[in-house]
Amino acid sequence: MTVKSPRCGVWNGGVGLADRRTGRRVVGNEHSRIGSDTKTWTATIVLQLVGEGKIKLDDTVDHYLPDLIRTKFYDGRKITIRQLLQHTSGLPDYLDAPFWDNEEAHRWDHIEPLQTVEQALTLPPPDRAPSGFAYANTNYNLAGLIVTKVTGRSMATEIDQRIIKRLGLRETSWPGDRTTIPKPDLRGYVKQGGTLVDRTEWNTSEADASGELISTGADAIAFWTALLTGQLLATAQLAEMKQTILDDFGDDYGLGVEGYRLAPGLVTWGHSGSMASGHKFRNAVTDDGQRAVTLLIGTDTFNSDEVNSVIGNLIRDLR
Q1: Is the distance from CB of 259 to CB of 15 less than 8 angstroms?
Q2: CB neighbours of 254 closer than 8 A, spacing ≥ 6?
Q3: Non-local CB neighbours of 58 within 8 Å, separated by 6+ positions
Q4: pLDDT per position as a tens digit, 88-132
């Protein structure tokens, strides 16, 4: 756990074991997979390119990737960049494809983001919230492909150059085909048959722009603070990011950010994440970037409602 407050600055701590085999305890400086929190970093890159006039939010996918999406159910000429970032494209999640029925069978595979998009296009349309929201990792892998088409560089390079190096983040990385996590690592455990099994090592290349990053609590807070205080986006693009709709749980979703209603009058932002390796990520940051809580969790057994309750109580009490 990492927290930030005006009075105490940034504090790291933890509960339990980072490694059940060795008995190493959590101290709060561990590296972990942050899963879908990567979407916020990706959305930031896209909006930077919008600010530079290289991408338009209301341009279509087909404008950048001609003929890639043209099936019975899906048409890239009718899907915009904004819809990708806000999960209103109507595309299904590639993880619902039969290929992923046994995720562990592909634990060591290199999977290109284009392959995940192609998997999604074989599926029927998903159920959508009244707002049109339907969460799909496909949207962000597509956004990553568009960033690469526009810049001529990979998402890994863009995030490294535009965010990691710009902010001086030393503990954040894009693993690619590397299956390990930098030390000290938070091991990931998945419950199988009543037993917690270590599944830390994993090739997460398929997650790409939708969920590939590895970071620490402190680096994640540094990124979110910079984002919300206007260090990464111009005022117009940050305002676009914060324009929310209701998602399928009745919560707020902007362009790669989740708006949390933790208490009356308390505006907070974040983005959750989870990975097949057992790693989970939860965070909340006040609108002014002054208070923040980040939880890195090394098992898939935690109840999300309980985790959100902990975050809510912590950030309300920070001074």
Answers
A1: no
A2: 86, 241, 242, 243, 244, 269
A3: 80, 81, 82
A4: 999 999 999 999 999 999 999 999 999 999 999 999 999 999 999
Chain centroid, CA 92 distance in Å: 17
Here the tokens at position 7 are 């009075």
Residues 6+ apart with CB under 8 A from 49: 55, 147, 150, 151
Q: Is 291 exposed, middle or buried (0-12, 13-18, 19+ CB in 10 A)?
A: buried
- Would you call 173 a catalytic residue per the annotation? no
Are the beta carbons of 119 and 97 closer than 8 angstroms? yes
243-302 pLDDT, tens digit per residue, is 999 999 889 999 999 999 887 788 999 999 999 999 999 999 999 999 999 999 999 888
Say what the pTM is. 0.97
Query: In sequence order, what are the beta bridge partners of 266?
Result: 263
Q: pLDDT tens digit string along 35-82? A: 999 999 999 999 999 999 999 999 999 999 999 999 999 999 999 999
Structure confidence at residue 319 as a pLDDT band (50, 70, 90): low
The mean pLDDT value for 203-212 works out to: 98
Q: Which of the following is catalytic: 5, 32, 36, 277?
A: 36
The sign of the dihedral angle between the CA atoms of 162, 114, 65, 122 is: negative
Burial of 172 (0-12, 13-18, 19+ CB in 10 A): buried
Alpha helices for the chain (secondary structure H)? 38-51, 61-64, 81-86, 113-120, 137-151, 155-159, 165-167, 208-211, 217-228, 235-241, 304-317
Q: How far is CA 136 from CA 10, 31, 153, 304, in A?
A: 33, 26, 24, 19
Q: Is 99 helix (H, G, I), strand (E, B) or coil?
A: helix
State the residue for tokens 């950010």. Answer: 257
Q: Do 221 and 294 meet the contact criterion of CB atoms below 8 Å apart?
A: yes
